[in-house]
Structure formats: C-alpha cells, structure tokens
Amino acid sequence: MSSPELDHVKGVWQRMQGNSPIYDFLLSDAEIISATKGSVSSRLTLSKNHVNSRGTLHGTVSAALVDWSGGLAICTHGIEKSGASIDIHVTYIGTAQVGETIEIEALANKVGRSVAFTTIRICKLVNGKPGPLLATASHTKYISQPK
C-alpha cells in the first residue's frame, strides 16, 4: 500500500544507492515494504555477502541496516538527507543464515532541528511473519534542517 512517506523514502533510497558503495554492495536487494511518518519497514533476503565465516548474519551488516533504516525513518518526516551518525548501539540477540529473510522495523522517536533519535528491531521472518528477534538498536543522527 502506497503512502506519501513510502514514496518519499523510496525516492531518498534511490538517490542514496548511486552515492553509497557500501549500501550498494550490502543492501541493493533490500525492499522497503511500508512507511508512515516516523516508521519504516523493510526486508532483506540474506546472501553470501551478508554472512560471516560461520555462515550467519554478520554483525556489520546488522549495524549497516541500523544506519540505513534509522536514516530512512528520519526521512519520513519529509527530510531529504538521512544525516550523519553520532551514536549506534546494537544488541545482538540471534542470527540468520543465507536464504533466510529478515525484517527491519525502524522508528524515528524524535526528530529535532539538529538531532534525531531512532530505535530499530531486526527479526527473522518465519512463514512470512516476524519471528525470532535478531538484534535491537538505538541510533542517534545529526541532521541539518532549516530553521
């Protein structure tokens, strides 16, 4: 289902892709599935590029997902650029393997003129529905908005 926020966030993501080699490498297959003001949901089916030497979701991929999705949640407020990270805290709870699909839920808890605060949950999808929790995170970003 389309919304103005979803259309806006998809446009932001499209512009980001050509300018961010790491996002292009890790997240080119990410699918933004919904967005409302302050919230973005996305999914990613894991490939060999997303796993560590043990074949499970790499922690840096989770951290990149936190950075990416938190920034997009901020952009649902009509902002064009997702800002610069000030702090990322990720708690790793579970893991997933190649071929499994994960869901990323990002919330923009507060978007001010210069700082935004987000929380993110990453879980494994089981039969198309959110299953085991893989990671939780908080992410603070510096944003520059006109006064």
What is the gist of this entry?
This protein is of the alpha+beta class. It contains three helices and six strands. The protein has a six-stranded antiparallel sheet with strand order 1-2-4-5-6-3.
Which secondary structure elements does this structure contain, and how are they paired or packed?
Blueprint: H1 4-17, H2 21-27, E1 31-36, E2 39-45, H3 59-75, E3 84-92, E4 101-111, E5 115-126, E6 129-142
Antiparallel strand pairs: 1-2, 2-4, 3-6, 4-5, 5-6
Structural commentary:
By secondary structure, this protein is of the alpha+beta class. The protein has a single domain (4-142), classed as Hotdog Thioesterase (Thiol Ester Dehydrase, Chain A, Roll). Helices cover 26% and strands 40% of the residues. It contains three helices and six strands, in the order H-H-E-E-H-E-E-E-E. The chain has helices at residues 4-17, 21-27, 59-75; strands at residues 31-36, 39-45, 84-92, 101-111, 115-126, 129-142. It has a six-stranded antiparallel sheet with strand order 1-2-4-5-6-3. The longest helix is centred in the middle third of the chain and has 17 residues, at 59-75. The mean pLDDT is 93. Belongs to the thioesterase PaaI family. This is Thioesterase/thiol ester dehydrase-isomerase. It comes from Hyaloscypha bicolor E. InterPro entries: ACOT13, HotDog_dom_sf, PAAI_dom, Thioestr_dom. Keywords: Hydrolase, Isomerase.
